[in-house]
Design a protein that fits this description.
This protein is an all-alpha fold. The protein has 2 domains: about 1-60, no CATH class; about 65-123, no CATH class. Helices cover about 60% and strands about 0% of the residues. It has 5 helices and no strands.
Amino acid sequence: MKLAKKTSLAVTGFFVAAIFLIPYIRMLITALTPANEVFEIPANYLPTSFDFSNFFTVWDSGPVARYILNTVIIAGDLGRTHCRGPSGLLFGSLPVQRAWPGLVVGFGNPNVRPNLDGDRNLS
């Protein structure tokens, strides 16, 4: 590639990354802003001092640890659920399923259902 094309690609990538990162940076700065400076008019985009006590106040005001645990549990369950479809499609299309039908039971193949009585139900 020519130098001008590489440079324009890098500059464009930088601006796109900045557009996506600016809200997160603003969120962090607002979280560190003291309470009396948050709603000032005219707005000051950089606080005069950073206040880390906001994080401790939120942590002490409610069951934040439980909220984080709930998020991990739900996100983990959704991740497993969304992985079953593509893996079932993959293993369902393999020619191996005729030789070992039990291989794809755990991956969501609707044609193979486990039977707890001990015999296989391949209907």
